[in-house]
Amino acid sequence: MMNTLRTFIAIELEEELLRHLVQVQDRFRRQLAPHSIRWVQPGGIHLTLKFLGDTRPDQVEAVKTALGRAASEVPAFAFTVGGVGCFPNSRRPRVVWAGLHGPTGALSRLRDAVESQVAPLGFPTENRPFSPHLTLGRVQRNATGSEVREVGEAVAASAIGTLDEMRVTRVSYIQSDLRPGGAVYATLYDAPLQQAPG
C-alpha cells in the first residue's frame, strides 16, 4: 500500500492579515465559554481553493504542473477581508469565518481554473457553489446548547469591519500532516499568477 499525502491548493495569507484575524479570535475568546470553539492556529488559516485529500506521491508533479497552468491563466488581484459569520447560520453555528470582499470574480476564476486543471488527474470537481471565506474556528462537538447559542449570538452581534486588504500574486500547493498537536503544513509548490505588464 503506497503512502498517500493529504494535500490542498490555497492562497497563503500575509503576516499582517493573520495578525488581524488573531485579534478577532482573541476578541471572541474573551466573550465565549472556554472550549466552546476550537480556534484555528494562525499558520492553519488559508484561503482554500481546492481540497485534494489523499494524493499519491506519484501524482504530486502532475498537480504542480496543473497548478502552474491554472495560475498562469489568471492575473494577480487583491481582495479585502472583513466581517464575520457562521456556517450554516448563526442559529446553528458550526464554523466561524471571516468574509472576503472585493473582486471575488477573480478569485472564482482562479478556483475554476484550478478545478479544470486538476480534474483530469482524478480529483473530482466540487459541486457546491464556491463560498470564499477564512475559517477562524469550529464549534466543539461537546459544546452545550447554550454555548452554541452564545457563539451564534456573539458572531451575529459583532460589528467587525474591514480588517485588511491583500494582493494575491501566487497560489500554493500545500501538504497537511495531521498530528496529535494539530496539523503541520508544508508548501510543496508556489505557482505565480499572471503578472500585469510592467
Give the tags.
198 residues, alpha+beta, Cyclic Phosphodiesterase, Chain: A, 5-stranded antiparallel sheet, 4 helices, 9 strands, 29% helix, globular
Task: Give the number of domains.
Answer: 1
CATH architecture tag: Alpha-Beta Complex
Contiguous runs where pLDDT drops below 50 for at least 5 residues: none
Morphology call: globular
Strand content: 35-45%
Query: Structural class of the helix and strand makeup?
Result: alpha+beta
Q: Order of strands side by side in the largest beta sheet?
A: 2-6-5-4-7
Radius of gyration, CA atoms, in whole angstroms: 18 Å
Helix content: 25-40%
CATH class: Alpha Beta
Per DSSP E runs of 2 or more residues, the count of β-strands stands at 9
The CATH H-level homologous superfamily = Cyclic phosphodiesterase
Q: In words, what does this structure look like?
A:
This protein has 198 residues and is α+β, with helices and mostly antiparallel strands. The chain has one domain: Alpha-Beta Complex (Cyclic Phosphodiesterase, Chain: A). It is 29% helix and 37% strand. The chain contains 4 helices and 9 strands; from the N terminus they run βαββαββαβαβββ. The chain has helices spanning 15-31, 60-72, 104-118, 145-157, and strands at residues 5-12, 37-39, 46-55, 77-87, 95-101, 133-139, 162-168, 170-179, 182-192. The strands form 2 sheets. Strands 2-6-5-4-7 form a 5-stranded antiparallel sheet. A 4-stranded antiparallel sheet has the order 3-1-8-9. A hairpin with a 7-residue loop joins β4 (77-87) and β5 (95-101). α2 (60-72) packs antiparallel against α3 (104-118). The longest helix has 17 residues, at 15-31. The chain is globular, with a radius of gyration of 18 Å. The N and C termini lie far apart (49 Å). The relative contact order is 0.26. The model has no long low-confidence stretch (mean pLDDT 91).
